[in-house]
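Subgroup meeting minutes
Present: P.N., E.W., G.H.
Scribe: E.W.

1. P.N. recapped why we're keeping a running log of single-chain structure predictions: easier to compare across weeks, and new members can see raw inputs and outputs side by side.
2. G.H. added today's entry (326 aa).
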Amino acid sequence: MDNSIEIENLTKIYGGNIKAVDNVTLKIGRGQVYGLLGQNGAGKTTLIKMLTGILKPTSGTAKIAGFDLNKDALKIRQITGVVPQDFTTDADLSGYENLKLVADLYGVPKKEAEERIETLLNMVDLYDVKNRRVSAYSGGMRKRLELICGLINTPEVLFLDEPTLGLDVTTRSNLWKYIKSIRDEFKITIILTSHYLDEVDALSDRLSIMDHGKIIVSGTSDELKKSLKGDIITLRVKNDSEEKIVENFKDAIEVKKMEMGDIRMKVNNSDVVLPELMKYLASNNISPESISIRKPSLDEVFIEYTGKHIDSEQKDYAKMMGFKQR
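Output recorded in log:
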């Protein structure tokens, strides 16, 4: 498969020593939906801003559809579309007026722009509200408008930076349908950044996990899940015995204490290990608060390679503020 994007040792340093993106090397095939999965602050948005010419790299380079990031920034802007996290459409204009404005900025001829706008509005079910002010759109409608604004210039590569951030679960899943339609209809490469595990799992042909500016691991979702090789037992105990269990329970392949106090065990067969675990807890007067067993999931993959839950920042904040976690 031809590569639509080739990134080599791309780095962005802020303030002399803060590495927002750290020596990233990556190849992304043409026509793929490629997921960049990571917590807020992992470096995903900074990477996208460099690849679209908004930020200049500190070092390293990349090629987008064959064009060099350091030499052909203007051309790269012409052949890429970007849907940022924040709304960029003008709320005082109609949906149609916003799309016409973007078409004018890209220099799309009038007749071609009108045909393209009509096609895109129909694709995301906004044609009937095209003349309504964007201020009257729901959050989901506005996200759909943002999505097709990124397609006005018929890009070869479309960057979606946290496209469903702030949307409810139902609206998010509906937006996935439109993203899949765009991929199938236009056969373009889509780079999707997200901290939603289910989103990356549902949409991506391949993905990379980012943490502290680095690419930690890459592959298909199935490949990464299969790499864990075993079941996962998550245990929480009542009487501060986590360290004792980590040090002394020997029937697991691996035992770790996680950041929120849970104990995570990787085991070959949970049906065999669970009875032994219960015996160990009883014999050591350790009271379990909760026990869960899961087959490998993308959530477990993220924990395996980063050592934390993808939503641990939110959990830490909630704990600090005294909120209960569900």
